[in-house]
Amino acid sequence: MFLGRYYHSLESKGRLAIPPLFRRLLGAKPILTRGLDGCLYLLPTATWKKLIADLHTSPLADRHTRTLTRLLAHDALELQFDPQGRALLSADLRRFAGLTKKIVIAGSLNWVEIWDQARYHTHFNNTASHMDEIAARFREVNHD
């Protein structure tokens, strides 16, 4: 399970060091793709395969399924770590997430989120103040 938040710097060549615990949990060749809310998702291969399988159970004729599939798959890539635990993030994904030098790498239970630090704090502060509402909505959606 991915827990915690780490602060790292993105190198000028686009390489990012991933925390050792996260690397161990991610395993070989994790998948990096677009995430929701302006971050990137870094997923273990098994989690990626489950996500893709879930998408494949949706009707191909459904426009939203096709769009989500494209958004997740077109820029996705398998990451490989160098001996220092760094991985090269593609320019397209860095642009999508607005990544600058200061980065937040955060565990989200089944995957890792990679955020630009300023964007992360803005998003987190805006949503944290509504935690009661979010929890109530979660109960409604998951217990009806």
Question: Quick summary of this structure?
Answer:
The chain has 144 residues and is an alpha+beta fold. The protein has helices at residues 20-26, 45-56, 63-73, 91-96, 117-128, 131-142, and strands at residues 5-9, 15-17, 31-34, 40-43, 77-78, 86-88, 102-107, 112-116.
What does this protein look like?
This protein has a six-stranded antiparallel beta sheet. It has a two-stranded antiparallel sheet with strand order 2-6. The protein has one domain (about 5-115): Transcriptional regulator MraZ domain (Chemotaxis protein chec, 3-Layer(aba) Sandwich). Helices cover about 40% and strands about 20% of the residues. A hairpin with a 5-residue loop joins strand 3 and strand 4. The protein has six helices and eight strands; from the N terminus they run E-E-H-E-E-H-H-E-E-H-E-E-H-H. The longest helix is centred in the middle third of the chain and has 12 residues, at about 45-55. It is an alpha+beta fold and about 140 residues long. The model has no long low-confidence stretch (mean pLDDT about 90). It has helices at about 20-25, 45-55, 65-75, 90-95, 115-130, 130-140; strands at about 5-10, 15, 30-35, 40-45, 75-80, 85-90, 100-105, 110-115. The chain is globular.
